[in-house]
């Protein structure tokens, strides 16, 4: 938990939010002569990144976990500089370990259907009008439900809510690594030098005067420039308001809503019975888990759920998703596993008042909203965060890059 600091009356640059974007902006401004302060509603830094150390020293990244596009990810050199070990074992998301419920011939047929779907989406991105990705599923294909379920892991929602323009814009090099001590722990270490006012909820940014006035739960301060890095959900629902109003920003944020992806962590007794870094899908339906067996050799299974299915269990309360995960795993691995699996952690990002979801996707027809949201206002109000990244949205490194970009804009103006 962060120490509570006295809120100053004025700063040169106020940064709203201490996630990867806000921390990157502050770190980038360290060499300038500007006074900088991050205003953070939580009592910790990291935003939608957070590492919990569970029983038996199991590392659980409650939020972001994978160094996506690691060969282009700025957090890879940051990790090395800070002495964080990187695990470069690639994920086996396209596999079904032990062939459970997914015979080799079926797996090859599924991968062929998945690749052909992605080819159609790529082609659709060249059409003059945007469309929902679901339009490009092959009618009647027996793998459509599983393809749609995979969208819930990637986008946090089903394919009917995904813009093909946006899907095609996302850059994935296929190199995905992990941080042995946790991605959230790495981001917290990266941000440790930053000046942060914790438990400081921003409700209004008044940019009508010569100095901007920021109303918070702990009082008011003024700033010459402001960088807003909060999730799109808080801009769209006007939990943070602007005066004068910024309807284009609110509309852009509304077109880039946060999907939902939640995780569970299950301790595993007798772990030697399962392969290290194995992978299992649950049932062939929309609404099922993606399971990582013994991640990085740990004695556990992590489960990943997304979209409306994850939201249903999020609404049911603590423990509901873990119970669902155990039921699915028992169906795959056998009844003896019911006594081998113990819930020890789970995420519920829709219930987090300062997130209300996991990561952004563009609704069909709204892919251009990322550039609209990222654009500065009057050379003194700037926007960053994963949703403003043109190609690495939904990722921590996309957020980090956007924070560096916004800090550069501050210094250029």
Helix segment tally: 12
Rounded to an integer, what's the Rg over CA atoms?
Answer: 21 Å
**Head-to-tail CA distance between termini:** 35 Å
Low-pLDDT residue intervals, each spanning 5 or more residues:
none
Helix content: 25-40%
Give the number of DSSP strands: 20
CATH topology of the domain at 10-47 and 183-257 and 364-412: FAD/NAD(P)-binding domain
In CATH, what is the class of the domain at 10-47 and 183-257 and 364-412?
A: Alpha Beta
The biggest sheet amounts to: 8 strands, mixed
CATH architecture of the domain at 10-47 and 183-257 and 364-412: 3-Layer(bba) Sandwich
- Cα shape: globular
Q: Please indicate the percent range of residues in DSSP E strands (runs of 2 or more).
A: 15-25%
Structural class: alpha/beta
CATH homologous superfamily heading of the domain at 10-47 and 183-257 and 364-412: FAD/NAD(P)-binding domain
Mean pLDDT: 96
Tell me what you see in this structure.
The model has no long low-confidence stretch (mean pLDDT 96). The chain has helices at residues 20-28, 75-82, 104-124, 144-154, 164-169, 183-191, 232-236, 247-254, 307-316, 320-333, 369-374, 396-412; strands spanning 10-16, 36-39, 51-53, 59-61, 66-67, 86-87, 177-179, 196-197, 202-206, 212-216, 219-228, 241-243, 258-259, 261-268, 278-281, 290-293, 300-306, 341-346, 359-360, 381-383. The strands form five sheets. Strands 1, 2, 8, 9, 10, 11, 12 and 20 form an eight-stranded mixed beta sheet that branches. Strands 15-16-17-14-18 form a five-stranded antiparallel beta sheet. The chain contains twelve helices and 20 strands. It is an alpha/beta fold. Helix 1 (20-28) packs parallel to helix 12 and helix 2 crosses helix 6. It is globular, with a radius of gyration of 21 Å. Helix content is 30%, strand content 21%. Strand 3 (51-53) and strand 4 (59-61) form a beta hairpin. Among the domains are: 10-47 and 183-257 and 364-412, FAD/NAD(P)-binding domain, CATH 3.50.50.60; 107-168, no CATH class.
